């Protein structure tokens, strides 16, 4: 059984698409990252998985159940952290925990909620209206975990959490995944987050899923991006050394841009040291650039076939 399976799913809002022809499957027991810029369609997808929106067309299955009809029972098997959490402002954190636990037929002391609170450095004794953004987020995380769900859906879980708490949170996710086989689906726009915990990652943009990659395939053997300004002005693309480093070197009027390709960075730097450098920036490609590179390569291959 798959945890999530989308086949040709579209979601239209009037004349615009939230999601277009989404085809994706998430295995049970997998930690799956869902990456994309603002407005890409991440929350729309998550809201369809959570039955808060219905697909306009296509087939969506969650934990083996079709989303064609309301499936209230399914909610008990899923933990959900929305990107914006709605809470009762006059309750304390502990009262909110008790309230949600009761909805699951549980008492807080039967759950691990207070251990999670300690690990996330969260104080349950404060009124919700007095919580900072980070503390609201921590409460949202604990509420989503309270009933130890089979499938945990996290929409931008780390915004507002400081780095130490983020680290602990990722540790916890890894433990739940290993200990209980919890499937974790989380959306983010931060590469370092998916690198830490995800086995596979999907990239979505403008409502379209561009690609799904295994984490190790995405980052293996990646080149660096170099941005170089030379002492001499003007287009130096015909310079033998630059052509040797990357035959596809580009020039934007001020800077030359190129990739190290499969060459070790030290070889590129040794070659560059023979040029009169005025300014130099070296960076890893962003996740979007990685996906776009893979996407172009894939399409070029498809066109050749
Ligand atoms: N209820 C709605 N009514 C109309 N358009 C919507 C609605 N919800 C989302 N959209 C549109 O669908 C597209 C996808 O939005 P969505 O919120 O899913 O993106 P996202 O990837 O979650 O972005 P963000 O990171 O900014 O939350 C956007 O163009 C958005 O304006």
From TrEMBL:
Residues 4-231 form the ABC transporter domain. It holds the Pfam family ABC_tran. The keyword Nucleotide-binding applies. The keyword Transport applies. Keywords: ATP-binding, Nucleotide-binding, Transport. One of its GO terms (molecular function) is ATP binding. InterPro entries: AAA+_ATPase, ABC_transporter-like_ATP-bd, ABC_transporter-like_CS, ABC_transporter_ATP-binding, P-loop_NTPase. Belongs to the ABC transporter superfamily. This is ABC transporter. It comes from Paenibacillus glucanolyticus.
């Amino acid at each position: 059984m798959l945890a999530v399976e989308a086949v040709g799913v579209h979601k239209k809002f009037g004349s615009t698409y939230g999601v277009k022809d989404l085809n994706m499957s998430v295995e049970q027991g997998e930690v799956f990252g869902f990456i994309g810029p603002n407005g890409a369609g991440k929350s729309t997808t998550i809201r369809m998985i959570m039955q808060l929106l219905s697909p306009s067309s296509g087939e969506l299955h969650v934990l083996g159940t079709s989303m064609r009809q309301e499936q209230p029972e399914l909610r008990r098997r899923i933990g959900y952290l929305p990107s914006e959490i709605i809470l009762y402002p006059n309750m304390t954190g502990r009262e909110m925990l008790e309230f949600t636990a009761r909805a699951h037929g549980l008492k807080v002391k039967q759950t691990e909620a207070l251990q999670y609170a300690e690990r996330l450095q969260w104080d349950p004794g404060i009124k919700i209206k007095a919580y900072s953004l980070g503390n609201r987020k921590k409460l949202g995380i604990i509420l989503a975990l309270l009933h130890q769900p089979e499938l945990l859906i996290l929409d931008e879980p780390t915004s507002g959490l400081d780095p130490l708490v983020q680290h602990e949170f990722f540790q916890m996710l890894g433990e739940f995944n290993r200990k209980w086989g919890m499937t974790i689906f989380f959306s983010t726009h931060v590469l370092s987050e998916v690198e830490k915990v995800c086995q596979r990652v999907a990239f979505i943009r403008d409502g379209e899923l561009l690609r799904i990659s295994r984490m190790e395939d995405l980052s293996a053997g990646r080149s660096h991006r170099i941005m170089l300004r030379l002492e001499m002005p003007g287009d130096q693309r015909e310079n033998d050394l630059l052509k040797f480093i990357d035959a596809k070197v580009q020039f934007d009027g001020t800077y030359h841009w190129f990739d190290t390709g499969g060459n070790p960075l030290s070889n590129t730097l040794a070659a560059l040291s023979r040029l009169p450098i005025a300014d130099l920036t070296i960076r890893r490609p962003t996740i979007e650039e990685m996906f776009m590179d893979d996407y172009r390569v894939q399409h070029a291959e498809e066109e050749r076939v």
